[in-house]
Amino acid sequence: MKTLDDWLSHLEALHATPIDMGLARVRRVSDAMGLAPTFPVITVGGTNGKGSVCAMLSTMLVRAGYRVGTYTSPHIMRYNERVAIDLEPASDAAIVESFAAIDAARGDTTLTYFEFGTLAAMKAFCDARVDVAVMEVGLGGRLDAVNVFEPDVSVVVSVDIDHQSYLGDTREAIGFEKAGIFRAGKPAICADPNPPASLIDHARAIGADLKCIGSDFGFSRMDNQWSFWMDGHHRHALPFPALRGAYQLSNASAALAVLDCLKLRLPVGQGAVKRGLLEVDWPGRFQVLPGRPQVVLDVGHNPHAVRAMVDSLRRLPFAQNRVAVFSMLSDKDVDAVVELAKDDFDVWYVGGLDMPRGQTGEAIAARLAEHGIAKVKVFDTVEDAWQAALSGAGENDRLTVFGSFHTVAAVLAARQAAR
Question: Ranges for the Mur ligase C-terminal domain (predicted)?
Fold first, then answer.
């Protein structure tokens, strides 16, 4: 296998199931490789918002002069997005080198695609001699591959219902899984305003230093700026994050709480914080594109995320026609998402996703009809739905693309191809 694409195709077929919860196999290979980071590790979990927190943290740390490794998932356009060093995607060569090292060390131990990727990211960060690694949990926390590495600070950004077949179907069950990234005697940040008792109880049971938004840290919003507070001190006159969405101040506060916990090892000045907030870039998270008609891209694919998206849409200026470009995977809670969003769009353009767990445009249109949505235009693909929506839009209309990472990726690819 010579190319990154060769490796990725190989990894997809290597393990019997795409998701196999548990740390034993990953730990065995990690130990065989001697992967023991000497730099601080920040582990970020949560149902939604974890990628935004990772992006803000990494940008502020880079602007403070640190060498930063960032591991996130899934990617939107290219696999390399998952592994970044100083905000730049790792090269194909660096990732291939890491994959080859893992393959040589694993013996007859099989790993999933995500587990391979997690070990590869940490090896790349060790090889690059980063000052700090920011690691986003893939699924849950307790049994996620990222949890094989010992965090210096852990963050749970939010707790809501998603991935029920793996994590449970209540906030209490899911909260316990996410709290599995906490460690005894180490700071544990929770940015959910209403954390499940299971999360709080687990933190107390293991002796983690739990800090909750609203009681231990928080923010105050003003017209043109905001301030952050934690343990009796403040950061005043902060600019609003470049990431759009009403919920991003909560995410930014979680990132600043992490920096506060690491201030003796990784001090970050006010200038770096301000630059990081202003310059952070995280595509597909309530991303408002320049130009007309207005286009909003949002990878939200569960009720919690779509509720936040709708709240942010309502804060935008008036749009003459509110157009949805929409598709979702079949294992997501399509009905709850549609019910939340149905009053905020005048017409829906839906297309199929041709992939495992994908649905046809007709199947999605049938779900919309069950919720009383009559103005629906159906297409074979998301790309076709996007092109039709764009060609029919006036300059005062707004097109919102949402429902899945794959939906946003299809539209971004179509936009690139049209340039």
Answer: 284-405
